[in-house]
Structure formats: C-alpha cells, structure tokens
Amino acid sequence: MADAGAADLGTSAAADGALFRKLVAEGYDQCAEAYLRQHSQQASDDDLRQEPFRELMAELPAGAHVLDAGCGAGVPIAKAIVDDARQMRVTGVDISPRQIELAKQLVPSDRATFLCSDMASLVCEPESFDAICAFFSVFHLPRRDHAAFFARAASWLRPGGRFVFNLAAGEDGDGECDLSTDFLGATMVWSSYPRDHTVKLLGAAGLSVVKEELKMVTTGDEVDRSGLRFRFFHCRKE
User: Fold this and answer.
1) Is residue 230 a contact partner of residue 190, using CB atoms and an 8 Å limit?
2) Phi, psi of 2 (to 5 degrees)
3) Which of 173-193 are b and which e, b meaning 16 or more Cβ less than 10 Å from the residue's Cβ?
4) Pfam families this protein is in (predicted)?
5) Where exactly are the structural domains of the chain?
6) For residues 72 and 135, what is the distance between their CA atoms, to the nearest angstrom?
C-alpha cells in the first residue's frame, strides 16, 4: 500500500497528464533491464498475463495482426505472437525509448514492428487489428484518459476483434487508485477507476466484456508486491 506522500504525488501527476507520462517514460527507461531480468526469471505460471493471453491467442485466426500496447521489451507477449506457427504479425508500442530498443533486439522479426509512442496518442488505421492486448499498461494512463483510449482502441479493431487488458484494483478489488510507488527502484504512477465505471466506459466505446477476472499476486514476483490485485478484462468489439 502506498504511503500518503506517494498517493499525493500520484494524484498530482494524474491531474497533470504531461507529468504523469514523463514519470512513466522515465521510470521504465530507468528500470528496463531490471524489469526484463525479473520477467526472464519468472515462471510462466506466476505471470498473471499468461492465462488471458493464451485465451486470446486461441481465438485468433492465422495471419492475425495484434497490437501490443505497452509492449515493454517485447517479451513474453510480442515474441510469443511472432513465434506462433500461424504467422501472426505484431505491432508493439511503448512510451519508453529504452524498452523499445530492447524489444527490437529481442524480437528481431520481419513480422514485428516496434514504435516509441504514448499509446494514448498513437495513430492507427481504422479496423487494422484483429486484437489488442494491453497488459499492465492502461493503468499507466491517467484515468481521465481511459475513455478516449478505449474509443480509439475500438476504432482500430476489426468487427469482432478482441481487446484484452488489465487495471490495478484497490485493496477491496474494486477501488480507485492514483498511486506513485517505488517500482524496481524507479518512481512509477498508476491510475484506475472502479470496476463498474470501467465497464461503462468500455460499453460506451462499443466494447462488450465477455470475461473478467480478479487476480492477485501471490508469489512476490510482480515487483515484489505480493497481495496486489489486478482486474483483467476480455472484450469484444460489437
């Protein structure tokens, strides 16, 4: 749980979108190698993304084009997409220049494209993706920007396309949070709405929730914060 000072910084950053994005970009630049090492050492069963990601992959057709929004260093998600035998393509975007450098090194494929950009200002062609995954990234946007991002994501999906993402959940699994935390030695900010409000925003964007699940970190692998809760949403474009 963040202390009062951290919460105050998080709330201030959420009110100032430019500061929020600066903290996220600089934070992930600073901890890029440590974050990569952590996930390289983490057993797949301990990675909260793996089950939602496997379920998403099972629904995709051969040759699917996937947007990995908040791709980090490209592993494990972008790499798994291009390694799939069905010849899928991935476009990865991340706000951290260092993370994108690592992704280009670690996923050297002609079916992988990596862009350094704030995903909230990303420009994509309408209906250009079969799926979008945004694991541990949407909550790095100020929550006041979530509605606009959901609408943009929906516009990028083909009809019937899938959008899988997660948000941080409060101690009761449903609360709001605007927090600044020590994340692998870097200052990091997170911002989420309660579950019901998030579902309303998704519906307004034309995205229906087909599955959701509350997951809790139990091993301490996710930045050594055992007990953190994350709510995962699997959505379909109407």
Assistant:
1) no
2) -70, 150
3) ebeebbbbbebbebbbbbbbb
4) Methyltransf_25
5) 4-237
6) 10
Largest Cα–Cα distance in the chain?
49
Cβ atoms of 126 and 119 within 8 Å: the answer is no
Distance CA 164, CA 232 (A): 7
* Number of DSSP helices (H) and strands (E) in the chain, helices first: 7, 9
CB atoms within 10 A of CB 75: 16
Which letter does DSSP use for residue 183 in this model? Answer: E
Give residue-wise pLDDT tens across range 44-78.
556 899 999 999 999 999 999 999 999 999 999 99
**What is the assigned CATH class of domain 4-237?**
alpha beta
Beta strands in the chain (DSSP E): 65-69, 89-94, 112-116, 129-134, 157-169, 177-183, 186-192, 207-216, 229-237
Distance CA 48, CA 222 (A): 9
| Measured CA distances, 219 to 43, 47, 169, 224, 225 (Å) | 10, 10, 17, 8, 8
- pLDDT tens figures, 87-135: 999 999 999 999 999 999 999 999 999 999 999 999 999 999 999 999 9
What strands, in cross-sheet order, belong to the sheet with 65-69? 112-116, 89-94, 65-69, 129-134, 157-169, 229-237, 207-216
- The helix/strand/coil state of 98 is helix
- How many residues make up the chain in this entry? 238
